[in-house]
């Protein structure tokens, strides 16, 4: 038996608990682990990063490849390391400066390969893999040992002083109602299906409809159009925006002024964040890629919606809202995810730990520490990063930079001793 672990219903007083268990080894969980190791002064035995994938960041890397993404939308200073120019130095050291792509009116952006190779370099340098436990968290409850949380995983339980929830966008891929009743053998896929393979989709003989109006749909349409006939079907005209929100939302003081001034968990906060996010938009360089593919005759862009779909003998037929039809086609949905609060763990944890949920089911957090508030008003020892922290971290919460903001909050000296976490949050500052 090692640090903080328990496989049975033992009293775990005789085992040392983890200082932090991080649920999710994606961009955010790995970034938080790196900060805790580097700036927090924790050692590997004190942290556990639980994720079902074989490799950290696998979820992001797979999604990026599934939609044919070539470059990040964010800048070279947004990565999982603690030092802002780390990726820049890495590119220079590896003679890969050409992978920092110049962008009009914006700092350079890394290629996907550069971003991922740099992340791997950070993981190897800090040996973050040593903290990775390949399993899935099924629940978190109060441990029998006072002040500790018990994290149940598919490979036994872990005791921790604090838990960080970093499970990403959360919900299931969104499927429109006309697609929900199609049989499993219909030529219909969602770009975020675990088994979606763009290379296989590109071998289809007929026309492929990519449904969606955001960056994922546009990138995928361009990618597939190199090898097959593609129509990008968007409900409305495509909207162009360079970034997911105005860059001022990266600034914590701006978030304090604009978001924290509104009641925690309120609909007013939710509405302000939704209004600030440029959801379902494409950046100019993707718009140019689309226009080039269109000019070459590789791609159509169509405004409209599918009303009805029918599959028979493996052939898919579509009827559009303007009454026209298409036969023997394939459809790839790029219609996003269900909202983050629909991740199954959110409801489970809220119930087992009596945690407060606000507008649209989002966790209500302490804005300063990102501790999820209990229904009795006290802070729990469960902290939140990523899309689920949007109500406190603002419109960039889900983005790479949101992981850094969350890590900084965790490491900030806390003047009050938390009701569940009895130790100071940063060893380096204790
Ligand atoms: C294609 C794509 C491109 C993007 N490009 C950019 C960009 O250029 N710039 C930018 O800033 N942002 C970008 N984003 C947004 C954001 O940075 C990514 O979504 C990022 O992956 C979010 O990190 P995360 O850790 O919150 O989620 P993820 O990276 O998805 O990681 C969440 C992890 O939690 C794990 N998990 C879930 N449930 C459990 C459980 N019960 N137990 C254990 N583990 C669990 C999952 O397996 C997953 O590995 C992009 C997103 C996508 C999808």
From TrEMBL:
Species this chain originates from: Haloferax marisrubri
Boundaries of every FAD-dependent urate hydroxylase HpyO/Asp monooxygenase CreE-like FAD/NAD(P)-binding domain copy: 21-168
Domain of life: Archaea
Family annotation (SUPFAM superfamilies): FAD/NAD(P)-binding domain (SSF51905)
Pfam families: NAD_binding_9
Protein name: Thioredoxin reductase
InterPro entries (alphabetical): FAD/NAD-bd_sf, HpyO/CreE_NAD-binding
